[in-house]
Amino acid sequence: MKASTSKSADMAARKPQTAPLRIGIMGGSFDPVHYGHLRLIRLARRRFALDRVYLLPARRPWHKRAPMADFDHRFAMLALAVVGWDWALPAALPDWRRPTYTWDELAWTRQRHPEAQVFFLLGADAFRDLPHWHHFPQLLDRCDWIVAHRGQASLNSSIIPANRLREVWHGGLRLRRSRVWWLPRFHQPFSSRRLRRLLAQAHPAAEIRQAMPARVVEYAVRARLYRAKNR
Fold this sequence. Notes:
Layout: E1 3-4, E2 22-28, H1 35-48, E3 52-57, H2 71-81, E4 88-90, H3 102-112, E5 117-123, H4 124-128, E6 144-148, E7 165-169, E8 172-175, E9 179-183, H5 192-199, H6 214-222
Parallel strand pairs: 1-7, 2-3, 2-5, 3-4, 5-6, 6-9
Antiparallel strand pairs: 7-8, 8-9
């Protein structure tokens, strides 16, 4: 498929007052939330002029082992991490007593904002794993996708079924009913596993405050979330 030479639209430009809401979604275990998550939603909001970003912690991630911290604690840490950001809203989906799927998160958002333009935020590793997600490839039609990555080499349009891929261009992919937008030069140095190991210590190393908001660190330490669970 021939790559397009059309100029990338700067979606951070001022929107007409009559334009529909632009809603971002970021799901995940957030076990724990860290500056990598927060930087991604800030960059996406600025670049794509998002009116609101929902942060949806998974109760039971379908593709990962159970989070170490209980859902209520992970939700509380998210709320603390975005204090003062009125556009970033942690939200709790209903407990369906089954794994949490992105399909459910999108349905939940569409129910509340049927006219909005919805964007799902994820990293390049998760993007490459999309073919294994619940209801793929129908999932591609449900929203636009914002993919954060370090460099173009980490991205590959081959995961998109041929009947859904319409155009490849330097700003992303145009699909049958949606788009994939690249968010380039994104560096995420924080490992959730490493942070859990630090928080398992009675007195976490000072480096952890470079990776997480102080109020989140204090909450996790006070609640002893990762003590005696060093993994």
